[in-house]
Design a protein that fits this description.
Length: 332
């Protein structure tokens, strides 16, 4: 059981009920305590106490981000970096000072090696983003730069697979469904931006509190959220460290996939419960996959049993990584 403190050690781990509650919030971040308790078959007061503790200790954070069309005002770029003298923990702070950085992963077993994902604003910047090195880190070599061509699964879509199919179905039933057809560009009003910024701070804020904070009526606040979700201009998510969910082993898997099978392989991996992130990229290894599992044995089984049965894969490279905190915060 996790202690009620602000500091979370890697040795700490949530118990089975906590994990089920977190999974419910990952699927439906604004689900009410009564709804979660009813679907999970637990006492409402017990669920309420646990939800409050999870939020108060910072173990989970329910937030929001602009949808892919709005958030994608830049072009995702994955950098492989190396520093000859090793890599201090403070490197994540230096990288965080570069506003375009989304996340940084340290590579185990490789001196000074990192993965860094960032956004560059324009297509022309794709060719010059690393020409002068990484800002603030002049002694860093760029080993490679892979541009994202298609995202099959975003990390915000992952949830810990501990619920039954029926429980997942009931949680999804109350979600706002997007309008049919591909997402269309959506021009945000100042009121829309206010709503998104408030939900970034706390996606579970009640409509009454949100309306009072922004000067809307409760009905207007609800309509704005619904419209943003329907048009995929807004995405809600529950952030939690997978280590606390019993999945401390994180790996970056690079795949060489024949073009004829890229769509099929990417689609299959995006449905795998061990996969956090999956995207087609440029370069010889044209599919990047982030995997999160219980231990190295399960990572081996993922490589053999999941990747091994998929056609069109000609080469696999696997690295254990650790997500470094961006102390100045990452943009959403």
């Amino acid at each position: 059981m996790l202690m009620d403190t602000d500091r979370i050690d890697e040795a700490d781990c949530l118990d089975a009920l906590d994990r089920r509650i977190v999974a419910a919030l990952q699927i439906s971040p604004r689900a009410g305590v009564a709804e979660v308790a009813r679907i999970l078959g637990e006492h409402e007061r017990a669920v309420a106490r646990r939800v409050q503790r999870l939020l108060d200790t910072g173990v989970t954070h329910c937030t929001a981000e602009f949808g892919p069309l709005l958030r994608g005002r830049g072009h995702p770029l994955h950098l492989r970096l190396k520093r000859a003298a090793g890599w201090p923990e403070s490197a994540s702070t230096a990288l965080a000072a570069w506003a375009e950085v989304l996340n940084v992963d340290a590579v185990a077993g490789g001196t000074g090696r990192l993965w860094c994902e960032l956004l560059v604003e324009t297509r022309s910047a794709l060719y010059t983003a690393t020409a002068d090195g990484v800002p603030g880190l002049p002694d860093v070599d760029v080993l490679g730069a892979d541009f994202t061509l298609r995202t099959f699964r975003d990390e915000s879509e992952w949830y810990v697979p501990v619920l039954t199919e029926e429980e997942e179905k009931r949680l999804r039933a109350s979600l706002v469904q997007p309008l049919p057809g591909p997402a269309q560009p959506y021009n945000l009003t100042p009121g829309d931006v206010q709503v998104v910024e408030a939900l970034k701070r706390n996606a579970r804020v009640s409509l009454t509190e949100l309306a009072g904070e922004l000067g809307f009526s409760t009905a207007t606040a609800g309509r704005r959220i619904t419209a943003l979700l329907e048009r995929r201009a807004l995405r809600l998510r529950t952030v939690v460290d997978p280590t606390l969910l019993g999945r401390p082993v994180r790996a970056r898997v690079r795949l060489k996939v024949h073009p004829a099978g890229l769509e099929a392989v990417g689609g299959a991996l995006s449905a795998c419960p061990d996969v956090l992130f999956c995207a087609a990229v440029t370069g010889q290894y044209n599919l990047l996959v982030d995997v999160c599992v219980e231990d190295e044995g399960n990572l081996y089984r993922f490589v053999v049993d999941t990747l091994g049965v998929l056609p069109h894969i000609s080469d696999v490279g696997t690295e254990i990584v650790r997500r470094l905190p961006l102390k100045n915060g990452a943009p959403t």
